[in-house]
C-alpha cells in the first residue's frame, strides 16, 4: 500500500492537494462530480484507502458531498455558502469566537452590503426585499421569522450584486442560528421585538429604495447593534 506521495507527503494529502488545486484552477466547479475512487487512485499513484481518507477530510470540511443511487457519487459542494458555513462553524468551535466578535464582523459586511444595494437599486432588484418584509409581517413563529430575516439580509447583498457578501452573510447567520433562536425563545416580549425588527427592516428597505447609501448604512448599523444588545441580554438569562 502506498502511504506516501510526492515530496514525502502522506498519500491522502496528495489526494487533498490534487482536489484543492482542481478547485482553485476551476478544473472542478461547484456541483461537479469527482472521478471515481479507483480512477483517482490510479491517476495519483496512491491506494484507494488513501482516496477514501482524503474524501472523508473534504466531506468534514463541507467541500464535497457524497450520495448513492442513480446520479450518485462524490460532488463538489453545489453551494459555496454551505461550505463557508460549515468551515466557519468548525472554526468558531475551535477558536471560541464570541457572539460580539461575530456581530462586529457582520456589521462590517452588511454596512458595505447596504451601501452597494442602495447604489445599485432598481425597482426590479428591490422587489424581493419588499416581498420579504411583507413575509416577515405574516410570520408568527420564531423559526419562520428568523429564516425570512436571514433571507432579507442575503437579498440585500444580492441587490448590491455581491454574491460573496451574501454567502458570508449566510455563513455567519448559520453560525449564530442557535444562539439567536435560543435568545428569542427566552424573551419575555418576543412579539414586541419582532415588531421592532420589522420596522427596522422597513427603514433599511426605504433607504435602499431611495438610493441613499449613507442612510442605508446608518439604518443597517443601528439595526444590527440594537438587535445584538437585546439578543445578548436575553441569551445571558
Description:
The longest helix is centred in the C-terminal third of the chain and has 24 residues, at 163-186. With 237 residues, this protein is mainly alpha-helical. The chain has 10 helices and 2 strands. The N and C termini lie far apart (56 Å). The mean pLDDT is 85. It has helices at 11-24, 37-44, 48-60, 80-95, 99-120, 123-138, 142-159, 163-186, 190-209, 213-235, and strands at residues 64-67, 73-76. It has 2 domains: 6-76, Arc Repressor Mutant, subunit A (Orthogonal Bundle); 81-235, GntR ligand-binding domain-like (Four Helix Bundle (Hemerythrin (Met), subunit A)), CATH 1.20.120. α5 (99-120) crosses α8, α5 runs parallel beside α9 (190-209) and α6 packs antiparallel against α7 (142-159). It has a two-stranded antiparallel sheet.
Layout of helices and strands, plus pairs?
Blueprint: H1 11-24, H2 37-44, H3 48-60, E1 64-67, E2 73-76, H4 80-95, H5 99-120, H6 123-138, H7 142-159, H8 163-186, H9 190-209, H10 213-235
Antiparallel strand pairs: 1-2
End-to-end CA span: 56 Å
CATH fold descriptor of the largest domain = Four Helix Bundle (Hemerythrin (Met), subunit A)
| CA-atom Rg in angstroms | 22 Å
The CATH homologous superfamily of the largest domain is termed: GntR ligand-binding domain-like
Number of strands: 2
**Which structural category fits the helices and strands?**
mainly alpha
Low-confidence stretches: none
Supply the CATH class of the largest domain: Mainly Alpha
